[in-house]
């Protein structure tokens, strides 16, 4: 290790953010362990190995126990501090957890091997970091407070400096600048780092994605301005939506006062190993992970762009994606300029898409936007548009407190719910992160039925041919008297009585044209065989999607504005309200039905 105070210290992210950014978080533990001895010998400041989306990917796709991955890495990397990324009160899940869950999660992560916890909140609402930061300190580990970097009229240098100071007051051992989107430019970085280094006594770290091609330059300006800690990724998984390459940054500072002292030849050997590993996961590569300067134009992060492109494709509206990119900054302004990172990127992106697709801004408002406007995610960085807030939530009171204050302790309840399927507290925490998925995982593990997803070979049809994107729907169909379980992806376009769909049969995607039966097309106007809405009492949707829940039954009386259906479109749920009061005369949908705009779903008279 280099004892020089001006030396740049490197955190390599190849085992976490590198593969999360480039191959959809799919690297398996079996591909990490063989190279750990060499990684451990380098002398990195730290290796980022856990957290972010890796926990989800382990349980959902790889059928690995994420806690066991951490234990194996800890054992294989005895000399290097291990680092994780934690979403504050959301931990590694997708909701706010009660404080006792946060405390136990941090304690178990520390016991299993994490040394450095990078803790952030999507809104930079520090109340959502408090409990996690305290828990890290209580475990005796390094608490790194994070600033999510974004660009807006309210995100000034003064605001970031104030945030850094408050993080230090909370006990932060260091401050990380997290530029998840690649928004930082070299000169903006220089100014920001100089301001932070001048304001706090703890080290400042820079985590900058290379999406727009500027991160290496930004890191150099950061170092010149007094930053001594940078995140880089082994060159085999560097560049594009990942990070500047470790080898390049090590070479850049060689022979200067900032020399990292790391061995380039040893780093190259590690790169040779990971280049081979990357080939195995070729099916998960995407054109959206390449360098793309658009984020400097629209402030839309790369990952969000690819998600939106997929969602617009599902809606048969890819041609209007530019309108969505133009709408995103307006929605963001309406919502008080949240930084765009999980989950705010999905919330803003989907609402912007709805505003474009329905032809009227906020005609349809997702439940997530409502929750956001009720204060469910914490305090937005700036004031939200009150008119839109009232349109979304009516006279419901806005909760200005810390969201987790509404939550009662839940560890005991969770332990009881999962029962014998949990062999230890780690299992309870896995279940806490993903209730359905976690339970399935633990059940299959008990029954010896864990099967990791197949890695499609790059030459196989499912990897090489364009297949409709989206979550498949499973059906059982009978063909010539034999039953087949099939998965259908894509909406299919209705041409008269014919429906074109994509079937996956025995892993082979096939485009199939269905000839619909007579009774199916009777009265058909929309795609689902329902009549066209023509009266105020005809409840319909403005977006194609699925029915999540039918909230009323025939004979119920409903008031004007009452929610009668919950639909799901673009992975977000939306309530559909009755436009008139009256009695429910007929319900034409059930949970799980696919619906298209303009169809009569419920009749009220
Ligand atoms: Mn990152």
TrEMBL record:
Domain Pyruvate carboxyltransferase: 8-268
SUPFAM superfamilies on file: Aldolase (SSF51569), post-HMGL domain-like (SSF89000), Single hybrid motif (SSF51230)
Keywords (A to Z) from UniProt: Biotin, Pyruvate
Entry annotated with the keyword Transferase: no
CDD domains documented for this protein: biotinyl_domain (cd06850), DRE_TIM_PC_TC_5S (cd07937)
InterPro entries cross-referenced by the UniProt entry: Aldolase_TIM, Biotin_lipoyl, Carboxylase_cons_dom, OadA, PCB-like, PYR_CT, Single_hybrid_motif
Residue span, Lipoyl-binding domain: 530-605
Keyword Plastid: no
Protein name: Pyruvate carboxylase subunit B
Organism: Salinicola rhizosphaerae
